[in-house]
Write a structure and sequence with these properties.
- The protein has about 260 residues and is an alpha/beta fold.
- It is about 25% helix and about 30% strand.
- Strands 3, 4, 5, 6, 9, 10, 11, 12 and 13 form a nine-stranded mixed β-sheet that branches. It has a two-stranded antiparallel sheet with strand order 1-2.
- α3 links the parallel β4 and β5.
- The radius of gyration is 17 Å and the shape is globular.
Length: about 260
């Protein structure tokens, strides 16, 4: 059953370039899928698969930044898949949304290979027997499919030398790197620190399927200016502000 109109909000992303419907009480995209999209080095004409696309925010951010992409989203929950299709239509961005489990993708996805795979897997392990007021939000935030399986699914769908881009919490980094072992190279990690001098809470990861280049740990990218939160005014650094408001790509340091 689709979301009722009264259960949805209409939210702006990329400084109003995108108008996105999201469930009022379900899983709601914040800045993380926008950062994920900004970190993916896509070019016009390339194909992109988003694993667990939800309402479509990351894929649509890519489509708004780079014209001419062939975008596909794989989403387990039918109501969110339907919402992603609606959001693509309302923003005039071509996005093919397929319903299915990344652990056993439907044939429509299995028979394709992609230049890029992007993913924002759940950050937290779901406690056994846990429950939430909204089942969709619980499933999106609490991991059922192991993180290694997200990596495996992404690598399987990539063309040789295709690129995997993910965002995840810093404490899950050992799992991510272990899952990539001997299957991807040219791994680049960009830590995202909330403020200067603070430990990174999130990491952006890029890797090339079958790549042979060295591992690179990049200097942290700072999200907010100042030493502490100062009232309700926006405090994003210019680089992050450009990503969130102007659809800028994240500029990764060159070796």
């Amino acid at each position: 059953m689709p979301f009722a109109v009264e259960d949805l909000t209409c939210d702006s992303f990329l400084g109003g370039r995108l108008s996105v419907l999201q469930p009022r009480g379900g899983y709601r995209a914040g800045v993380d899928p926008v950062l994920l999209a900004a970190a993916s080095p896509v070019r016009a004409g390339q194909s992109v698969l988003e694993l667990g696309c939800g309402a479509g925010v990351a894929a649509l951010c890519l489509g708004a930044r780079v014209a001419g992409l062939r975008l596909t989203g794989l989403e387990l929950q039918p109501r969110y898949a339907a919402l992603a299709r609606e959001n693509a239509a309302r923003n005039s961005i071509a996005l093919s949304v397929v319903e299915g489990d990344l652990a056993a993708p439907p044939q429509e996805v299995r028979q394709q290979s992609f230049d890029h795979v992007i993913a924002n897997p759940p950050y937290f392990l779901r406690a056994r027997g846990s429950a939430a007021a909204d089942a969709g939000r619980e499933r999106a935030l609490g991991e059922e499919t192991p993180l290694a399986q997200w990596v495996d699914a992404g690598l399987r769908r990539l063309v040789p030398k295709g690129r995997l881009t993910m965002i995840q919490r810093a404490e899950r980094l050992p799992e991510l790197l272990a899952a990539l072992q001997d299957r991807a190279g040219d791994v680049e990690l960009l830590p995202l620190a909330p403020r200067a001098g603070r430990p990174a809470r999130l990491v952006l990861l890029r890797a090339i399927k079958g790549g042979g280049g060295p591992f690179r740990l990049l200097p942290p990218m700072t999200m907010h200016q100042g030493a502490a939160h100062d009232g309700d005014r926006e405090s994003y650094t210019p680089a992050i502000g450009g990503v969130l408001r102007n659809a800028a790509a994240i500029e990764w340091p060159v070796a």
